[in-house]
Amino acid sequence: MIEAQGLTKRYGRTVAVNDLSFTVQPGRVTGFLGPNGAGKSTTMRMILGLDSPSAGTVRINGQRYAELRHPLRQVGALLDAKWVHPNRSARSHLRWIAASNRIPPRRVDEVLEIVGLTGVAGKRAGGFSLGMSQRLGIATALLGDPTVLLFDEPVNGLDPEGILWIRQFMQRLAGEGRTVFVSSHLLSEMALTAQDLVVIGRGRLIAQTSTREFIDNASESSVRVRGPEMQRLHGVLTSQGLAVRDLPAGDDGPAALLVTNSTTEQVGELVGRVGLVLHELSAQRGSLEQAFIQLTGGDVEYQSGGLGTPGAVRPPAQGAPAQPGEGPFAAPAGAGQTDPATQGGTTR
Amino acid sequence: MTLLTVERIKLFSTRSPWWCMILATALTVGLTSVFAATTKSRDLNDLTPSVTQFAYNFGLVVMMVMATLAVTTEYRFSTIRSTFLAVPRRTPALLAKVTVVGLVAGIVGEITAVGSWAVAKAIKPDAPLAIDTAQEYRNVFGVGLIYLLSAVLAVAVGLIVRQSAGAIVIELVYLLLLENLLPSIPTIGDNIQHWLPFTVGNNFIVAGQPETSDGPAVITGMPFGPWGSLVYFAAVCVGLFVVAGFLAKRRDA
Hints:
The complex is a heterodimer.
Chain A: E1 2-11, E2 14-24, E3 29-33, H1 40-47, E4 55-60, E5 75-78, H2 90-100, H3 106-115, H4 130-142, E6 148-152, H5 160-175, E7 179-184, H6 187-193, E8 196-201, E9 204-210, H7 211-218, E10 221-226, H8 230-239, E11 244-247, E12 256-260, H9 264-273, E13 280-285, H10 288-305, H11 310-313, H12 335-338
Parallel strand pairs in A: 3-7, 3-8, 5-6, 6-7
Antiparallel strand pairs in A: 1-2, 1-4, 8-9, 10-12, 10-13, 11-12
Chain B: H1 2-12, H2 16-38, H3 56-76, H4 79-86, H5 91-123, H6 134-161, H7 164-181, H8 189-193, H9 197-206, H10 226-250
Helix pairs in contact in B: 1-5, 2-3, 2-5, 3-5, 3-6, 3-7, 5-6, 6-7, 6-9, 6-10, 9-10
Keywords (chain A): ATP-binding, Nucleotide-binding, Transport
Organism (chain A): Frankia canadensis
GO molecular function, one term (chain A): ATP hydrolysis activity
């Protein structure tokens, strides 16, 4: 388990990480999501005691990293696969790291086997491809059989096969009850890997929630409806206070109506009550990337625009929520029921 | 003890330290053998144990480069971060490194010193090369101690500068230029010279012997005797390492 409390890092006048608090639970993959430059790596370095925070604390299993005895047996980290002397062999690299925490030397060959580098163990690490370096980095992280694992952008620059391997690997580690904290700037990648998310933008916490909850809240949910009597349909929906847009006939099919911020259930029941015929009723989702940019980009405006009225800072064309509190920034009301791990999840 | 093993693995699992050690030995012993071979028989009486060490600075510079690289390559390739992840308190890791690097430099220093003396003895068996007096022991075996302490200083500079080229340039410019140029300042030059670390360190090896044109330079009127000079030199090297260690502990890795 990792607990950060009010973590802050200033470089001169620049604030890289600003009052960040979150917890990372064992037994699941927690994604650490934010655009490039949001402060993810700085936060990870502070967790590992490489950078000292300007304010706040971060604890791993209740202790600061510097207090851990033989830290590599409790925490494994892959921050940068290139942290290897290029003229040292993979085995020598692992050997000195193992020796530093009194990890038995045979473990070196075990982890090389796990990541599939046994064949090149004696080769100099400088000649490794990115994928091989990444595997060596993972071998390093696994050396002490730690219960807490941190990965910083592990899939960057990997081919699809490598991405799939790492994704399944992290899920397996979490399945074994370990704490897995993995950073990424790609929501689509995290959607496939992580069960929980800690989302930051510009060094500030945007949300801590389950991935499903985050995506549901983040992406604009709207409903596409079509029927023979479009005029009446339009009237029925607007009379109930729903925002309705006309979709002209085009590539997506014949002309239809788009009801923003609604569900198929809501629209279906409404229309059914007045006995209208429908030819189409389908849920539409905005892309994850769009939603993510909207969320993290919005955080900039947040600082000047004040808190609490997310609708006010988002252009209406993107489908502003009808009432404040229903936007993606709102606390996920159902989180506690669907997902015990997100109870007390922080949102701003 | 484990951390000493770690630093030993790190130092010897790349090739450049090996090359530095070979180069340091070859340079000093090689130059001394040329010196001994070209000594004319009428100058034979001047070929003393002290003179066989005339080239020790060459090996010293090479070992300081090795000691610097032992630190700066860790910064260059970010393995210092892996080191600090393994030993988050940092100080034990830095102490282990300076111990291993210092000892290796010291051993190489003794090998070059004894090697230089032995090669001279082999080439000119009739020269007065017997090691009997305390001064002659210092002349030869003292060299290793200066290597060891200089390596400590080089590790310190590496930790402060954290960059290979910068650290090595600073060391070479200081050792080869500044320590030789500062004494030529009028009036105060001599006073400054008496406190320059490497000049004082050299005084440990040569103190009390008459100046010859061949061996390491002897400067008269030094404030300390030989052992006092060694303590002063050690204080400077260890002092700088303490400062460097403090910085390394405080700075973000």
